[in-house]
Structure formats: C-alpha cells, structure tokens
Amino acid sequence: YVAQLYHRISKIEWDYECEPGMIKGIHHGPSVAQPIHLDSTQLSKKFISDHLWSLVDTKW
Fold it and tell me: Cα(19)–Cα(45) distance, rounded to whole angstroms?
C-alpha cells in the first residue's frame, strides 16, 4: 500500500534491478516521461533528495 501511495504521488517508476549505487527509474511528468539516472556514489544525498522532490508536481 505504501509503495503504491509513493508511486501515485511521485509518479516515479523505479528500476529495482539496476546496479548498486545507481538510482534509476522513469518520472511520468505532466507532459513527458523523463528518465532518472543518478549515481549515488558521486552525488550527495541532499542533491539526490532535492532533485527527486523537484520532480513532484505541486499542482493538485
């Protein structure tokens, strides 16, 4: 249930089979689907968090 709720809010389809240290998925935005490909070994947790939150649509 929680995973479904996160998916509904964020509209991110995660790739759970990617290599360790990588964060991959597809963000289904309002106008276009956008791939997500982040290397967590090269980027800070704050940057990753801020980037992912910036994808969430604030218009309800």
Answer: 18
Structural domain containing residue 41: 2-45
Report residue 45 CA to chain centroid gap. Answer: 13
Work out how many domains the chain is built from and give that number: 1
Q: Is residue 51 part of a domain?
A: no
In this prediction, residues 18-30 reach a mean pLDDT of 92
Tell me if 54 is assigned to some domain: no
pLDDT in tens, 7-23: 777 889 999 999 999 99
Residue 49, SS3? helix
User: Which amino acid belongs to residue 36?
Assistant: I
